[in-house]
Amino acid sequence: MPQCVKCGRVLAIASPAEGAPVCPECRTGVAAQAAAAPQLAPERTDRKAERRVSPPALTLALIAICVLVFIAMTVRGVSPTHPSSPQLLRWGADFGPATLGGQWWRLLTSVFLHIGILHLAVNMWCLWDLGALAEIVFGRITFAAIYLLTGLAGAITSVGWNPIATSAGASGAIFGIAGALIAYFYLGHHRFPPAAVKSTLRSLLIFAGVNLFLGFRK
Hints:
This protein is mainly α. The chain is 68% helix and 2% strand. The longest helix has 29 residues, at 24-52.
């Protein structure tokens, strides 16, 4: 007597035309698995796609550093709304005589220091909005290089523009990110839809124009 090739069950009737003998129960199970497979495949694909989309970890880390520095300053007695120049200098603000006198590290520390909670809130909102996009577009390493180099360039420009002013903040780095994104979307080769690129460019140009205007009014 023929037997089922899957479970070994004895078959009453052989069906040579159907190929290897399979009992009705096993044939039903195979059909059910085949019907379920197309439904499960997209779900597995979606999970893989979700794993590939990672959060903007570097942007979050930069924001966390700035916020933690501000909290530490406030806990140590610095005014959260109107910190004085001596207080800011103790925490690493940029100041021409000190920076040019050998304390070059102020060019870096001043990028993570902010002059009051409003200054911090505006810069962190801009950093989150632009940094998350830049981190996706450029990758973390390139984004980190853009942030640090343009932040340092902003601090150097501040010393050159007004050496006796106490300055701090991530504004230079944020302008650098905006400039890099404008150059990328305007000149770069990418696969973003034209309508999305046009809208993003408009937003970036408005952001840069408004902040430059506010900066020159100070």
